[in-house]
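Researcher: Go.
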Amino acid sequence: MSGATTATSGTVPVTQKKPFYRILYVQVLAAIVFGVIVGWLWPDLAKNDWIKAMGDGFVKLIKMAIAPIIFCTVVSGIAHISEVKKVGRVAIKSLVYFEVVSTFALALGLIVANVLHPGRGFQGQSNAAAVAGYAKQASEMKSVDFVLHIIPDTVVGAFAQGEILQVLLFAILFGFALMGLGERAHTVRSMIDDVAHAMFGVISIVVKVAPIGAFGAMAYTIGRYGPQALGNLAGLIATFYLTAMLFVVVGLGIIARIAGFSIFKFLKYIKDELLIVLGTSSSESALPQLMEKLERLGCSKSVVGLVVPTGYSFNLDGTNIYMTLATLFIAQAMNVDLSFGEQMTILIVAMLTSKGASGITGAGFITLAGTLAAVRPELLPGMAIVLGIDKFMSECRALTNLCGNGVACVVVAWWEGELDREKLRAGLDQDIDPSDIEVAVTTG
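Model: Structure:
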């Protein structure tokens, strides 16, 4: 990449310290606080379409680059591998890890809901019409449709519509095709690597306006729903955030310790991405930066290219916690007792309905509707209870999903023997400005 500083083997480049006001996470954090203040004190101003457009526009700017970045990284990762067995091995290890951790996340949501009973004694109104659209979408979600939807009608259509799973499928096929061509594909592989670097350059430009996007999204959210939306359901919000923190600190913390690194140092390393996600409520807004930083942390290019994009559809830990916790909250709020067998059914159904949720607008809410419709349809009207605060819940879902996928990539790289320990140690221990995305990505 032009103007980049190339890292030497086993070392991580250290950039010159910036003034604090030029550091990205400081700017984003300040923008979030300012957005909350504007939304609270001047709600009419905050609900202006142009304020909302700030947040929506930033997310769209990031999303426009996601499909080509995923295509290039996945194709490059596979094409540079000399044996097909390695791709299959990484894929199987990733799916095993995803299913184990996702099941733990679902079970944790059930356990917390049964212990704390956040919905007991709730006094609220349920408006079935408010969730009719979500329920209709959920009723149309069938496993066979999901599988067929992975196959694009046209390759161009997959990129044009931003269908990540479709792009991922084509990238895997294209990567295997290049692998089969051997040295004849050298020119194409080099071109794809160069395009990937150029796309990361686009992201480095776009990410500079992250504070504007975070301000717009947060101001509109507070202005639209108001502090009272938080007050009415503060118990559920607090329970969900507490459960997500427990999952990240204890669950992912134990996994990270087994793999030989500290979850707290890792969270500090990705703090820029976490704050961007907090401001935009979309884990996809930090996907390109996360992939770039995981490579700098010592994960091999092939593992990052395979694990992270797949994890965004199959490893949605925050969404899993939300679905089981919100289902029991609704049941408790509507005075419906769910037996142990029904709760186990919820866990199994939620495990299926959560797959591919990242590609759907309002994914967490729609998959919740799908779970309720499959287990206890009479609970569907109760979704109106949590409709007003879903925006606040989506932020925590996105943050947890981001943490889960980052840890998953490091763990699978360690499991596969594709983790550079020296880079990992240097990346987590040294004071490196992670907002400098221009630092070259070494391919190992």
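Model: The first helix runs from residue 24 to 41.
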